[in-house]
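Morning. Coffee machine broken again, so started the prediction first thing and wrote up yesterday's gels while waiting. Chain of 624 residues, entered below exactly as on the submission form.
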Amino acid sequence: MKTSLTVIDLYASAREIKGLLGKRVENIYTSPSGYLFKFSGGVYLIINEARASLTGVVGERDYRGAETLRGLIRDEKLIDVVMPRFDKLLVLKFGDVELVAELLRPFNLIAVRDGKVVWLDHYYKGKDREVKVGAPYVPPPMPYIDPLRQREAALEALGRASDVRKSLSRELGLGPEVAEEVLARASDRNAENILKALYSLVGEVLEGELRPTVYFSGGRPLTATPVRYLSIKAEAEEIYDAFWKALDRYFSDLEIRKVVEKKTVGIDAKKARLEQSIEKLRKEIAEYRKRSEELYSLARTLLSLKYELEEVVNALLSNREIETSIRILDVNKANKEVLMEYSGLRFSLRLDRPVGKQIEALFEEAKDYARRARKAEDVLRKMEEELAKLEVERVEAERMAIEQVKRAVERAWFERYRWFLAMGEIPVLGGRDASQNESLVRRYLKEDYLFFHADIPGASAVIAKPTNDELMLLEVARFAASYSRAWKAGIHAVDVFYVPGRQVSKQPPSGEYLAKGSFMIYGSKNYVRNVRLELAIGIREDGGVKRVVTAPAKSIQRLAEKYVVLTPGSLDKSKVAKDLSKRWKAEQLIDEIMAALPGPSNVQEWGSGNPIPWDEIKAKFSTW
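Came back before lunch.
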């Protein structure tokens, strides 16, 4: 599993980045995943130690850390994209500044003007060069034979190699993945034919038709390549229409893990320290308990022998001999101690203290150890509670990190609201809350447009372009009914009224007040009776961008590739959202799915549709 682009990958990526030529840099951000460059048109470029490519995945962004670079190239046009040699070096040219991405170890990103470094990701000093601001920029030494420029040297290296695969990988700098593919494409192990296969692969990537592919094994991505690789055997493959999309699919998991690690490193350190303390405390508690039990046992035994022990002690002090069940093992008159044994239990007693007092002291010592154990257990409980909180904190931090990695997509204006196309034709908008209800009516409800509302307090204000089609009216009414309080209340059918926009007003009768999101309806209402609450939620993908869409069941097929039909039910929103996101492999959209759900639901059916193109949907709303 590769952790960075191969040189062949970089050629393909550079080819796609050239599509940005002439576009301006609108902004530059730092992120846990690397540097993000936003170009005009909402296109993003990511550069990090793993890759330099276009991307549709944009995570948490920060303005800090790129201030100087932003000052150097923001608003500048990209005028050229160059790979100066057969190596993982990429040069992006903006006006008089060249941005050099060294996708090597160590990674660096360097801005050069007039041959001198004016900004860099980090200072570097090695055996062959020093990279610092103000110094002339010197590229890293070429550690390989460049097969494109040093053909004879490459032939010689392959000709003398006992292991051609290793020679391709190390001497020519192809790396294992590309070396395997070149050998798979070569007709034999002849050096000429091997180089011919390499040149053919490079030519295909530079000028041929790309076939970006992600390969999977055990459900996890193995690698991504710009063209179909003969050498890779995988359980499954996914084909993409752009290499950067394949790279997003492959590297996003790695980048998310990197983000998660950065977000959770402090928590993990706290957890490790706490777990170590908990383990130590558990051992101490066990020792306290053990010692307490031993002392209690000894004290109880001695208490049962108290009178016999007193006789033994008195006999020893008076140098008398007596018959006893207690064995005398040793008498130390200097220290005034006697070592005894009873039924295999050894113990010592002092000769200068009353036996009863010594037994009492044993009980007190046993109690003391028991108290220590209880106190330690109280501390342990608090530590375990703290550990549990850290676990929750870590899960939340991980979730947040994953959620922060979102598809870069310029949202259409209507996506701020709930929306759908009735039967794929009539644009419909609905408010998500009282504020949006106000906004919709104020900004988008025209006199002849239709205003729909469930005949129940607490519902979405839904507006649609005028229509007399009964089926379309029913679809809009069902949408309005579903996004009402009736769903959460478990009601399965409600009446819905609709009126022309001219009958809707924010002007209350004299002396009355209208709350936010409330309206006065003047004149007669048209009713759609007993509208069944039923809503379909689906997912669609447009150019690698996944969207959550909602609509009544009859309209969803024109909007979603996959969908589910729901009715009010008992399954919690979070469970439904989690199940749907997992089934549709859209875990990054779980919050959007959750927001689309009207309330607790039951699944009625699963389906697939044939969605109309996104541009066509935008065109229909553009006529609003």
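The two ends are 50 Å apart (CA to CA). Going to sketch it on the whiteboard this afternoon.
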